[in-house]
Every structure is written in structure tokens, then in C-alpha cells.
Known about the structure:
It is a single chain. The chain is mainly alpha-helical. It has one domain. Helix content is 93%, strand content 0%. The two termini are 30 Å apart.
Amino acid sequence: xxxxxxxxxxxxxxxxxxxxGGIAEGAVEIAKILFYIFIILFVISLVTGRFWAARL
Length: 56
């Protein structure tokens, strides 16, 4: 999922260079959403990993 957010970020930069404001804004928003989802899933996996490690 982090790859998708990086890909959309690169698309946004390229679109901004060429002056496509609407496309760049859309790609940035998608990249932000995917990045936040990745961070949330990462934190959840850290918490559950600690729970399972403490349980063993």
C-alpha cells in the first residue's frame, strides 16, 4: 500500500510540473489517504505483534 501512495505522489508531482492542477490535487489526495491507511495498519500490526509476543 505504501507503494501506491508513492506512485500517486510521483504522478502528482509530474502533473504539477505540466500544469494539470486538478489531476495533481486528486493524486495528492489519494496518496494522502493511502499513506494514512498504511500508518494505521502499521500501528495495528505493531500492537498486535507485541500482544502475541507477550502472550508466548
